[in-house]
Amino acid sequence: MLKPIQTSSRERLCLDGIWRFCLDAQDRGLKERWFSGALPAARDMAVPASYNDLIPDAAVRDHVGTVWYQTEIRVPASWSGQRIVLRFDSATHRATVWLNDAEITSHEGGYTPFDVDVTNHVAAGQTYRLSVAVDNRLHWWSIPPGRVLTLADGRQKQQVFHDFFNYAGLHRSVWLYATPKIYIADVTVVTHYAAKESKVEFKVEALGQTNTHVALRDVAGAVVAKADGTSGTLVVEGATPWQPGKAYLYSLEVTYGTDVYTLPVGIRSIEAVNGEFRINGKPFYFKGFGMHEDHGTIGKAHSNAHMVNDFAMLDWMGANSFRTSHYPYAEDILDYADRTGMVVIDETAAVGMNLEIAGKLFGGEFPKELYSEDAISSRTQATHLQAIKELIARDKNHPCVVMWSIGNEPDMRPVGSFEYFAPLIAATKALDPTRPVTLVNVMFVNEDDDTTAHLLDVLCLNRYWGWYVQGGDLQSAKAALHQDLKKWAKKYPDKPMIITEYGADTLHGLHSVVPVMWSEEYQSELMTLHGEVFDDIPTVVGEHVWNFADFATQQGIMRVGGNRKGVLTRERQPKMAAYTLRNRWKNKS
Ligand code: BDP
């Protein structure tokens, strides 16, 4: 899916700004046709932003259900005769959109973009009322799953099955853009790096019949290869590769009739073989974090300032990679990773398919069978497949993305887990045969019980030895971690392993000369001991600490002002562990 850009044939208008906004706690908006006029009792709301923390009101912060956004748009007069498209970079978790009184589209899933051709709904130079109903409810069938309970007083209560605050709203930019009527619908590139001759396979999807030309330019603008036609292979001699920490981006210029689209292209190869993860034929070791899109005030909104700061902090610690735990991040973040040479494991929002965790966190009645029509069902699987398709459609051309993670910590023991996940793993591989596929393992599902581990290209293991298990006893934790990883390595000697989560909640400023839980010394020591174990197991090809920074969660007895496993505070100030990791990572290749 092509993102809106400016080219010689394309223009875009960013619709970000202050919109009107109201809650719809009783689900009246649709019946009362709120889209057909000014929203009732509306207030100002920033777009992009999570709405939750912008207003000092629990009814806003903890709202369950639909909210409405509205703004007025003017279609530029100069766009007459063009194809005009409205695009949302995301609406969390689902949305319906109206232009004046006409419903024009709806979309399920809070972290991938959607667009709609509005050429037949608008005239150049005219203004229109744009209304969007955004629903934050999570159900057993949504990705991520959750459930809505009705309390005795009739209020709705959202139970989420994951450990981050259910921020919602228009988190990313909204665009109106114009292309020629005969236009480039999609471009796919696959690259193969070799020192002598590299290859860039391309495929152009275009609507209408006309000539297609592609030209690959280097950073100086010189054409290094070109071809005619909607598909083919460009051969680049002596190409400069896209490398971790050393990005190099060519630019593929596609011309189709009067339409022109330019795509940054990083030439690189990936393989997960013989217990190694190779980028451009060289073993790569992942150093970095599981992260979150999470900041004070703006919640899960994308902000370039915060992103640049986060990348600078990653670099400061010597990190070379991160996982988009636990949902697809804004595409701007992948663009920036492409530019800076940051390596990304790209994850869907399938987090929380786990009754052991959800049941413990929330108590109450849960269905007996996790994979059943009452819980994680065939409908969930269909939503999940669609989420995978949309993730790959958006991110397939990013050189920074080196692996797809189709979910985080599902319970892979019960009956039905194989039947649920095996087809999704196969579908991901069919949609993109060029990238390894993983599914992140939860620590209580061991190597013999995990029903789909043998199907994965890379084993990603989340391990909380020294925190949830053996908490306060780092020596036992270290021994247990060692045993645990050795068993996985023995069972799967050819599969590279990444420890995608390990860590300890830590209160910034709490010190203890003897490392005790919650102190900065404990977190730091835990990092050191884990590093020693990882260095002892040859097929461990990476370490991602949980988490880059402290982040917001639901309220509860397990969390004090959010999850404190960050090695940075939520404001991105370092705890002691940040220096420990910096010391290790700057000295480890
Ligand atoms: C893991 C989850 C992650 C949590 C973390 C924790 O993957 O989302 O935040 O535990 O408990 O199980 O800190």
Give the fraction of residues assigned to helices.
10-25%
Note the gap between the termini. 35 Å
How many β-strand stretches? 30
Order of strands across the main sheet: 27-26-25-24-23-30-29-28
User: How would a crystallographer describe the biggest sheet?
Assistant: 8 strands, parallel
Report on this model:
With about 600 residues, the chain is α+β, with helices and mostly antiparallel strands. The protein folds into 3 domains: about 170 residues, Galactose-binding domain-like (Jelly Rolls), CATH 2.60.120; about 90 residues, Sandwich (Immunoglobulin-like), CATH 2.60.40; about 325 residues, Glycosidases (TIM Barrel, Alpha-Beta Barrel). About 20% of the residues lie in helices and about 30% in strands. The chain has 9 helices and 30 strands. An 8-stranded parallel β-sheet has the order 27-26-25-24-23-30-29-28, with helices on one face. Strands 3-2-4-9-6-7 form a 6-stranded antiparallel β-sheet, with no helix packed on it. Helix 5 packs parallel to helix 6, helix 7 runs parallel beside helix 8 and helix 8 packs parallel to helix 9. The longest helix has 18 residues. Bound molecules: beta-D-glucopyranuronic acid. The site of beta-D-glucopyranuronic acid has 10 residues, from loops.
Short description:
The protein has 589 residues and is of the alpha+beta class. It has nine helices and 30 strands.
Key descriptive features of the protein:
single chain; 589 residues; Jelly Rolls; Immunoglobulin-like; TIM Barrel; eight-stranded parallel β-sheet; six-stranded antiparallel β-sheet; 9 helices; 30 strands
